[in-house]
Amino acid sequence: MGLVVQKYGGSSVADAEGIKRVAKRIVEAKKNGHQVVVVVSAMGDTTDELIDLAEQVSPMPAGREFDMLLTAGERISMALLAMAIKNLGHEAQSFTGSQAGVITDSVHNKARIIDVTPGRIRTALDEGNIAIVAGFQGVSADKKDITTLGRGGSDTTAVALAAALDAEVCEIYTDVDGVFTADPRVVKKARKIDWIAFEDMLELASSGSKVLLHRCVEYARRYNIPIHVRSSFSGLQGTWVSSEPIEQGDKKVEQAIISGVAHDTSEAKITVVGVPDKPGEAASIFRAIANAEINIDMVVQNVSAVTTGLTDISFTLPKTEGRKAIDALEKNKTAIGFESLRYDDQIGKISLVGAGMKTNPGVTASFFEALSDAGVNIELISTSEIRISVVTRADDVPEAVRAVHTAFGLDSDSAEAVVYGGTGR
């Protein structure tokens, strides 16, 4: 048996009983002959509680100290889990991100992993121990400061360790039984996917699917690390995410035409009104946004008015970056030459994802017909070879997702999908 990396989210280790349940699963893997490395998130809503506490003390906490505070949650989880494993008669050692060799850049609150040097983890494994690693954190290469990896950081930690340790698989344990064709909290008849290619999973993740984060999937694809998404509350097989289809019995699972429907209500829309329709204007707008270190998603430019020669440019971005983006554009208003700005944070994005759509005529028409039949108005449209995304009113998102899911025959004929607890992370 080879080396397995397991990651457990906050809902899986939310309390003492959950930690003991996870410990039994880890010990079972060890008894089956695997070397086991475990990555844990903070217990339950600990990270959110620490963020709230920090905001009560300081409205704008310093990045370094904020990271120092947030990493406490994972350190609590790893120590308690190591204790629970030892209580079952097996040796376990816990390691912080820096002790595990997770080296990052120096950007606090959203650092990126630049290297993993898991010397201490290898030593622990060679000695027959189970290694428990605090997810979501690392240490900066230059100043040796503690850093955090941002949303989904524990998933990324797990995949990075799996790549560095040449693991057979990275198992991501959560509170649903795998990756579904839609969020089972919104679509009760969502169907579990047995296998999905990295490319489709990347599109779902970047479109709002919360079971795996984009950075985690991108890291796994780069190093070709198979991911098995499954529930820590059941023993069922989950969803395999890999470059090649898995085999069930004597045949491989085939790629579906449509992999699923994702949605996201965490974005806002900014419209730059009255932009001169001449070369360089769009570049000036998005250079100002880039200089503010803001990532954008969808971009749409209207046809310019014949009488004025002016156009409008709209783009979407995370709500949390809205104020910063407005300030950056206002600061450059004279240089860019636009008339005004409009901000809208009551939007939602619905995305249809599937590698098969590029060779199947009619997918686009069926998608828009389903939205029309549901009475959903479309504000923006963006497409790729394997994805169609639209922006609508936030209130219309649940009905839109259900309508599209049904229209493409994704509804399950069996029992409703089970959500065991938590928020899907």
From TrEMBL:
EC id: 2.7.2.4
> Which SUPFAM superfamilies does the record cross-reference, listed alphabetically?
ACT-like, Carbamate kinase-like
Keyword list, A-Z: Amino-acid biosynthesis, ATP-binding, Diaminopimelate biosynthesis, Kinase, Lysine biosynthesis, Nucleotide-binding, Transferase
List GO BP terms, alphabetically. Answer: diaminopimelate biosynthetic process; homoserine biosynthetic process; lysine biosynthetic process via diaminopimelate; threonine biosynthetic process
Reaction(s) catalysed (UniProt annotation): L-aspartate + ATP = 4-phospho-L-aspartate + ADP
| Pathway recorded for this protein | Amino-acid biosynthesis; L-methionine biosynthesis via de novo pathway; L-homoserine from L-aspartate: step 1/3; Amino-acid biosynthesis; L-threonine biosynthesis; L-threonine from L-aspartate: step 1/5; Amino-acid biosynthesis; L-lysine biosynthesis via DAP pathway; (S)-tetrahydrodipicolinate from L-aspartate: step 1/4
Annotated GO molecular function terms are:
aspartate kinase activity; ATP binding
Q: For the ACT domain, which residue ranges apply? A: 270-346, 352-425
- List GO terms (cellular component aspect): cytosol
Task: Supply the enzyme class, top level.
Answer: transferase
Binding of ATP occurs at 7-10, 174-175, 185, 210-211
For the ligand (substrate), the binding residues are: 47, 74
What family, per the record?
Answer: Belongs to the aspartokinase family.
Q: State its role.
A: Catalyzes the phosphorylation of the beta-carboxyl group of aspartic acid with ATP to yield 4-phospho-L-aspartate, which is involved in the branched biosynthetic pathway leading to the biosynthesis of amino acids lysine, threonine, isoleucine and methionine.
Can you say what this protein is called? Aspartokinase
